[in-house]
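User: Design a sequence. Structure:
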């Protein structure tokens, strides 16, 4: 086992524990039982906790600084989950006013991540394009969160699919991770030059 693998292990285990906890929380029905703004507060707390950990835990900060940029971008390939939003909107299980812009936006950002990961050998050589993609991705995810919050507050039953498995994991695991990786990418791109 290499030093890099050893240093990654605690953070990967922490991520798995977080995922398992989110799965149990959502699967138990407790997440869906929260009344607005409960789900939004859970999302906010998880995002703030993750960003605070990245800023204040020295070992975690050092580990993040050593992660390959390609790996941080690859996290955003998960945003193809936007396809699920489109499918659910077509079935009437999510409001189209939320699902269509959220779904297509996520798909576009995921496609951009896939292009960077598979077709761009040197990400820092394309720093400006990566910065633009990262900015668009952050704006998109913040729009999705705000749009979901607005729909939950005005018609909570219309967003029930986001509060149960499997999509409940989007709010309790994936979105905080996506927001954090956008922030971490900005930090890395500011520090690292071609």
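Assistant: Done.
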């Amino acid at each position: 086992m290499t030093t890099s693998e050893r240093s990654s292990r605690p953070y990967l285990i922490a991520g798995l524990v977080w995922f398992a906890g989110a799965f149990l929380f959502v699967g138990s029905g407790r997440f869906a039982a929260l009344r607005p703004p409960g789900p939004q507060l859970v999302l906010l707390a998880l995002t703030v906790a993750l960003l605070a950990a990245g800023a204040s835990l020295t070992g975690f900060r050092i580990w993040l600084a050593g992660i390959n940029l390609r790996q941080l971008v690859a996290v955003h390939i998960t945003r193809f989950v936007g396809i699920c939003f489109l499918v659910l909107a077509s079935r009437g299980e999510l409001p189209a006013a939320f699902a269509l812009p959220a779904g297509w936006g996520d798909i576009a950002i995921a496609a951009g991540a896939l292009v960077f990961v598979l077709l761009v050998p040197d990400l820092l050589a394309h720093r400006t394009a990566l910065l633009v993609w990262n900015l668009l991705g952050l704006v998109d995810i913040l729009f999705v969160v705000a749009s979901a919050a607005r729909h939950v507050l005005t018609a909570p039953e219309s967003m029930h699919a986001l509060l149960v498995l499997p999509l409940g994991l989007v709010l309790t695991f994936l979105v905080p991770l996506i927001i954090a990786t956008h922030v971490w990418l900005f930090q890395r791109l500011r520090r690292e030059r071609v």
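The chain has a mean pLDDT of 95. Residues 3-191 form one domain.
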